[in-house]
Amino acid sequence: MATENNVAATYLDVPPDPERIIEGLRDTGYEFNTSMADVIDNSIAAKARKIDVIVDMDFMGNIIVMVADDGCGMDRDGLINAMRYGSKRRIDQASLGKFGLGLKTASTAFCRRLSAISRGLEGGKVLKATWDLDHIAAVERWDLQLVEATPDEIKLLDNIAEGKTGTVILWESVDRLLKKIYDDPAGRHARNALKGYVEKLRFHVAMVYQRFLDENDKRAQNVSIRINGEQVLPWDPFCVSETKAPIAEKVQKVEIGDNDRAEFTIRAFILPRKDEFTDQTAVKNARLTNDMQGLYVYRENRLIHGPDWLEMYSKEPHMTLCRIELSFDHKLDDAFQVDIKKSRILLDDSLYDWMQSFLQGLRREGSERYRKGVAATVTGTAALLHVVSNNAIHAQAENLKTASLKEVDGATGDVTISNKNGVTRLKIKLVDQKNSGECHVQAVDSLQDGVLWEPAFIDGNQAVRINTGHPYYHKVYIPNRKSGVTVQGLDSLIWGLCAAELGNVSESNKRNFEEMRYEVSRILRRLVEDLPDPAEDDL
What we know:
Elements: H1 18-24, H2 32-45, E1 50-57, E2 63-69, H3 76-83, H4 102-108, E3 111-119, E4 126-132, H5 133-139, E5 145-148, H6 151-161, E6 166-174, H7 188-208, H8 210-213, E7 224-227, E8 230-231, H9 240-243, E9 248-257, E10 260-270, H10 280-286, E11 294-299, E12 302-308, E13 322-328, H11 333-336, H12 349-385, H13 387-397, E14 404-408, E15 415-419, E16 422-426, E17 429-431, E18 441-444, E19 453-458, E20 461-467, H14 471-477, H15 484-504, H16 510-527
Parallel strand pairs: 1-7, 11-13, 17-19, 18-20
Antiparallel strand pairs: 1-2, 2-6, 3-4, 3-6, 4-5, 7-8, 9-10, 10-13, 11-12, 14-15, 15-16, 19-20
Helix pairs in contact: 2-4, 2-7, 13-15
């Protein structure tokens, strides 16, 4: 064959170095949960009804990981293809498997010996195929070991397959799970660390395969998954039993080629606040934390990404109640740029712009519902928040008194005060205590012109009224509610400003004091804009 320049070219078969490639593929960035999900994907693709996951440690500290299923199983050719790096494309394009690499790369990211034990026909022969990374390094060949399974290995399979078809994936020589070197590899600390991995895996599986695990969800085949013998229950991020229905739903069609179209579905849910759930168990199961907000992306009914905002927005406490479901099938893999681990997607510019526009109103609604709940919570909290400050100020109030209340004009509401500058008529609130001991600091829902504070007299005592609706109160007071010293310090400062105003105000400068309060309140509103909203636990 000749090139365009009519110069003869030589084509050589240059296979990659087995050890360099297989060791390099161990570093593709898999996390344990993602790896296990990739293995489970193969079981679901094999139409398994039951999947058993075992993560255990023997008395020597050796970790064994196993995923067994009662799926369709594989014959000799099927087993070899499954273990091939870059296996042949599945006939069913809707399969959870995508690139033909997941089983191998996900497994060897954590183990040096990967085996697949399978029976393709009921009552048929059970074969075992093994990639042994140490053997490959020694012989410098892509040597896949293929043997008949031992009686013990057949027993592992039949614990779930019962003589019928099925597959066992086995990880041995697990060297990258417990990275910390323990003095006793099989001791209490190592076992506790492994137990932590198992518990995190349990929730990951409950979330990722929710539609498969939920018998009432007809969008996906029903599968039973057990981890170390315990059934995994589905976790619904959208709390449909509480939310009942999405606040918005949209089916969007996408052009994917000549005369070919596909579609994706987006549904928006706003969860109830803690006090709106039917019971405390439902609240606990909802996981109302800041890190669970955002988009949950499903490919072929399997969660592949999230929750996050796909880099469109950062996670903020006032969006805690907002969770969005985005679902698509394999036809849109290229449009969403699904990665090799099926754990992330990327949006092209047009999809990004469309998504951001669609989410804008939904996020506003979620934020408003959150803030309304926060406002109610703040009102209840504020009644107790200033008790210590009232007591502390009251102990010193007589010594710090800067003005005396002289008379009240019942017709206009104006009061006359006397201070070192003489007598001045002012518009100042004269209020009663709303709660026992609330004689110097009183929290209120709002103040005129949106100011943060204003001077007042409570039962004749020099006092300050603080606006709980001001962002400063929301973002400074509430996050520090458990620090009595901080709250007392803030209250003392603002009360001191009011005392100074009452002690120095006169007919000539009273307008200046009013404008000063307005300007400071405006400036503080701007200064706290970039401060985070209080976390759910702060409320």
